[in-house]
Amino acid sequence: MNSESLAANGGTDTPAQQTSQESAGATQRTYSQQEFDDAMAKMKASVQKKASKPYEDLGDIEELRTIKSSWEQKQQEEQVKRGEFEKILQDLASKKDAEISKRDRVIQEYKVDVPLLNTASKLRSVNPEQVKSLLKSQVRMNTDGEVEVIDSTGSVRYNDKGQAWGVEDLVQDFLSANPHFVSPTPSTTNGRSNISNGSPNKVDISKLDMKNPDHRKVYAEYRKTAGIA
Q1: Same domain, 165 and 228
Q2: What's the rounded Cα separation, in Å, for the pair 150 and 157?
Q3: What is the mean pLDDT of the segment spanning 43-61?
Q4: What is the mean pLDDT of the segment spanning 74-81?
Q5: Whole-structure pTM over 0.70, yes or no?
Q6: In whole angstroms, what is the distance from residue 167 CA to residue 181 CA?
Q7: Could you tell me if 151 and 168 lie in one domain?
Q8: Is the separation of the CB atoms in 210 and 216 below 8 Å?
Q9: To 10 degrees, what angle do helices 128-135 and 167-177 make?
Q10: Are residues 99 and 189 in the same domain?
Q11: Which structural domain, as residue segments, surrounds residue 189?
Q12: Total domains, the chain
């Protein structure tokens, strides 16, 4: 448009020209920081709302997080308590085992040790305590709490009648096989007369027990009477 036309229009732009200028200005517009932050906040709220919509019936998200955190803490506390409880159970089990062992030792002494000792004494053992110690491993308690005499293979021993051995059978068998564990028979008047037959010259030396003081006296008298130096 020439200057004459502008002059004819009074020096103003036409409507088309004004629209073109406004569009150019719009394409060059910038946003402030506040406007940008507001736009991002709206977008974030929109995304969160969309993501939490399926869980709206469960309540507030933050409240759910708090509940979850409390539950996890309670679970940890329960685990700690269970750990202490297990320790208590272990302590009780140990005490129970100790009591059972003590009870078994008492039963063992009453049904094994004492009978062995008493029987060895009754059968004139020179050392009943030693006999008990030697034979103790051959006596055991079965599951019914009864005493069993066993052999070297762990089998129960029976006599010729098919009856299980008792403690007295075991001690008697041992002393018969080991006579040096038996005290000599105390000498009596009858025993002495059997040896001397009423006369020092007729002493049966083969029947003398030189461990017996009375027999040693008889032997000394015999030697003196017989003139043996």
Answers
A1: no
A2: 5
A3: 69
A4: 77
A5: no
A6: 17
A7: yes
A8: yes
A9: 110
A10: no
A11: 184-229
A12: 2
